[in-house]
Amino acid sequence: MTYWWLAYDFDNYVFACQICNQIYKGDHFPISGQLLESPLMPNAQPNGIQLTQLVQALVRDVTLTNDEELVALWGTEEADLIHPYLEDPADLLAYEADDANREVWIRAGAGARATRAHDAAVKFLGLNREELRRLRYEQLGILRILKLSFDEPRLGEATKATIRAKFDEMSRPAYPFAGLNRFFLREWNLL
Description:
single chain; mainly alpha; 2 domains
């Protein structure tokens, strides 16, 4: 294990679906920068105050650390995977519909960081696996129907307001495929 001392660090954990985590990611952590240096360990097992000091040195109090401190602490490793608490995936990833095959692919946004993030997400999380491409397309189909309804000139204002509220709901972080929903709603100037 490369970063053994981060095993109990709360900020080292990010939620992922079971398939992404167990089948694809495992204990892989691709980086483009330098590995963090492991802390020096004593030659003999400490006890008492020395043990307390060692634990405090190894396990940060997450309530006392902000995002800027994490970036400073971990920034030199240049993690390839997106850390969604520190980076906005919308700045790094795009979506491309393939209507002929009824799939939606995740593509890299602009820039070298976006390319690294995309490539790592595909390889180490399986984000372009067939199942997800097809599920994304189903979600896009629902979104397209709502957009067609919203664009209908004879549609009443109350119904438009209901659809607009649904767009807002579908854009919330906890909604399935929220990133895809936000991407296309922005493309259509509806968000």
